[in-house]
Write a structure and sequence with these properties.
11 helices; single chain; about 40% helix; BirA Bifunctional Protein, domain 2; 10 strands; ATP-binding; seven-stranded mixed sheet; metal-binding; three-stranded antiparallel sheet; alpha+beta; 2 domains
């Protein structure tokens, strides 16, 4: 049995050395060291040995097993290393080739303008509110002092979905909803940015869908001077500290008195040029003191509370700030146009 074990050891080691892949090596391992392998078959005959021979043969069997396993482990390591080198050679990457350029996205110019305005008013203590784009006729018109048949409704040609539902024509309904939710008991200081929709023919200065930001401040003892100071700060922050503002009388059903705000032309500094049509001023937004009826419909006592409201178009602000001549550029997704702003 001793000679048989030594012969199996020599035979197994030789076969291990001749294997060319891991699969063949596993087959050799099973053939000699497995439960039904050659070494196990030999050891089953140990019962026929004497008590003196059994320890000797057992010790030899363990040495033979260890020698074969050691040969298998060494060969396996060599085969795996060879396979790895072969794979690396096959998958070699030419690091001298130029890399593929990565195109980075950026914030849309209108989003940047809206966020800039939001940051300004948040710093003044305003909160940002949002509301539905599909609005009821009541909140879009009636709650803002525009009852059925009011001629001012014609100023905002609307997309009606039903007799009572429409695509909102301004973000003012958010103001009405916010005041209504507070039951006339708390001050309001808010802005509401968002998309609005009107039945305009698209051209260089008009779009059927555009963005708007409206602001509202309602509290006790709010004055017109507070509105002017707020708008003056806004103009200087957005267009430069040298900008001046002027307020002209106007009409909006939801404010009384109402004003249009102009800023001094940054191109000619108020001297007059083709941009400002030789006036030195550029119209930028509408504003006014909240109409008492609007306060009353929202649950506020107009004898106790006063407030001001303003509305502006980020599209128009972006056009003036960056000298953009066509509002449609914001919506046609021309990467060449859009990328110049987020690279700046």
């Amino acid at each position: 049995m001793q000679e048989q074990l030594q012969r199996l050891e020599k035979e197994a080691v030789e076969k291990v050395s001749q294997t060319e892949n891991v699969k063949d090596l596993q087959e050799v391992q099973v053939a000699y060291l497995g439960r039904k392998g050659s070494i196990t078959e030999v050891l089953r005959g140990m019962g026929k040995l004497s008590k003196e021979e059994r320890p000797v043969i057992g010790e030899l069997a363990n040495k033979v097993r260890a020698a074969i396993q050691e040969a298998i482990d060494e060969k396996k390591e060599l085969l795996e290393q060879a396979e790895l080198e072969k794979q690396l050679e096959k998958e070699t990457i030419d690091v001298t080739l130029p890399g593929r350029p990565v195109n980075f996205g950026g914030t849309h110019i209108l989003t940047s303008i809206i966020e800039e305005i939001e940051d300004l008013f948040i710093g003044l203590g305003y909160e940002v509110r949002e509301g539905p784009e599909v609005e009821t006729d009541y909140f879009n018109f009636e709650a803002l002092n525009l009852p059925q048949g009011h001629p001012a409704r014609d100023m905002q040609d609307s997309f009606y979905l039903t007799n009572e539902l429409l695509m909102r024509t301004h973000t003012s309904p958010v103001q009405a909803r916010t005041m209504r939710s507070l039951n006339g008991n708390e001050p309001v200081r808010m802005i509401c940015p968002g998309k609005v929709y009107r039945r305009d023919s698209d051209d260089a200065t008009h779009s059927h869908q555009f963005t708007q930001i409206e602001g509202l401040y309602v509290d006790k003892n709010v004055r017109m001077s507070d509105l002017k100071g707020t708008l003056d700060l806004f103009a200087k922050k957005m267009f430069g500290k040298d900008r001046e503002i002027r307020l002209r009388p106007s009409f909006f059903p939801f404010t009384e008195p109402s004003v249009e705000m102009d800023i001094s032309c940054k191109v000619c500094s108020g001297k007059g040029c083709s941009v400002c049509k030789q006036t030195g001023w550029i119209e930028i937004l509408g504003a006014g003191m909240v109409h008492p009826k609007v306060l009353e419909m929202a649950g506020y006592d107009p004898n106790v509370y006063t407030g001001f409201a303003f509305g502006m178009g980020p599209d128009r602000i972006a056009m003036l700030k960056y000298g953009i001549d066509d509002i449609r550029r914001f919506y046609t997704n021309d990467i060449r146009f859009l990328k110049q702003f987020h690279e700046a």
